[in-house]
Design brief:
Blueprint lengths: L26 H12 L10 H18 L7 H7 L8 H7 L6 H14 L5
Length: 120
């Protein structure tokens, strides 16, 4: 079996996947960081899974009736509640992936969304 070589210029090995993140955060931690960077209050209470599931179903039902995109759907709720965590170690090691602090990434994303009219 041949050993695959990694070339950062070709974006890694063909067929491989890479996580291009920096660190794993729970939703509570992520929303807390976002709130801190943006100078707003973080959400106080988690939404219980059954309530989120109901809301996702209602949003999908409303979308079917109105033809508009659902704000939340059952698939989103399932992903948000599955406790998945990933590591960027492979991308760091094989692609020499540079790391930007989460706070800087949040600030830059907010600026981009504001500049492009997604946030008022």
């Amino acid at each position: 079996m041949a050993v695959a070589t990694v070339n950062a210029l070709t974006q890694g090995r063909v067929g491989d996947s890479y996580i291009l993140g920096n660190e794993n955060l729970s939703y509570r931690e992520a929303f807390g960081l976002m709130a801190g960077v943006l100078g707003v209050a973080a959400p106080r209470w988690p939404v219980p899974r059954p309530l989120a599931t109901l809301y996702g179903g209602l949003c999908s039902w409303q979308a079917a009736l109105t033809g508009r995109r659902a704000q939340v759907n059952p698939a989103m709720v399932a992903v948000a509640n599955d406790g998945h965590y990933f590591t960027p170690q492979k991308a760091r090691a094989e692609l020499a992936l540079p790391q930007t602090s989460i706070q800087q990434a949040i600030a830059e994303a907010f600026d981009w969304f504001t500049t492009h009219g997604y946030v008022q």
